[in-house]
Amino acid sequence: MDGESTTKSYEEYAEEEKKVTESAETSKKTVSTKKKTGKAKITSLIAQALAAVWIGLWNSLQFANMLKTGTHIEVTDIIFSGLSIAACFSPVYFSMIMDKIKNIRFGDKNENIEMEQ
Fold first, then answer.
1. Which of these, 86, 88, 98, 95, lies nearest to 51 by C-alpha position?
2. Rounded distance, CA 28 to CA 24, Å?
3. What is the residue-wise DSSP string for 24-47?
4. Mean pLDDT lowest for which of 39-43, 81-85, 86-90, 107-111?
5. Per-residue pLDDT tens for 59-97?
6. Which of 41, 43, 56, 40 is nearest to 92 (CA)?
7. 14-18, 30-34, 77-81, 108-112: the lowest-pLDDT one
8. Which end of the chain is more exposed for a tag (fewer CB within 10 A), N or C?
9. How many angstroms separate the CA atoms of 64 and 79, rounded?
10. Does residue 2 sit in helix, strand or coil?
C-alpha cells in the first residue's frame, strides 16, 4: 500500500466534502427564503382570520342590540357584514391565484434550482 494513494484519496475526499457542504449551504439559502415567504403568508392569513372574527363579533353584538331594542335589522347590514368578511380573505386567494398563473407561465423557480443541482 502506497502512502501517496491514501493521501490523494483523502484530498479528493476533502474536496468532495467541501463541494457537498457548499451545495448544502446554497440549498439551505433557497429553503430559508421559501420559509420566509411562507411565514408571511401564514401571518397574513392569521391576521385576516382575526379581522373576520372581529367583524363577526361586532356585527353579532350590533344585531343583538337591535333585537333587544326592537329595531329591525336591515338587509344591507347583513349583506355588508358578509361582504366585509369575504373581503378580508380576498388578498390571500388573489395571491394564490397569481402564484399559480406565474408558475404556469414562467415555471416554478424552486423546481429549476433543484434540477440544476
1. 88
2. 6
3. HHHHHHHHHHHHHHHHHHHHHHHH
4. 107-111
5. 889 889 988 998 888 888 889 888 888 888 888 788 888
6. 41
7. 30-34
8. N
9. 16
10. coil
Q: Where are the alpha helices (DSSP H) in the chain?
A: 3-69, 75-106, 109-116
**Residue 33, C-alpha cell as written in the block:** 427564503
Cell of 89: 380573505
Asked if residues 42 and 71 have their Cβ atoms less than 8 Å apart, the reply is no
Residues 6 or more apart whose Cβ sits within 8 Å of residue 88:
48, 49, 51, 52, 55
Give me the residue label for grid cell 390571500: 92
Among the listed ranges 4-18, 24-38, 88-102, which one has the minimum average pLDDT value? 24-38
Cell numbers that stand for 91 in this block: 388578498
Contact, 55 vs 88, CB < 8 A?
yes
Phi (first) and psi of residue 71, to 5 degrees: -85, 160
Residue count of the chain:
117
45-to-32, 82, 83, 101 alpha-carbon distances in Å? 20, 18, 17, 20
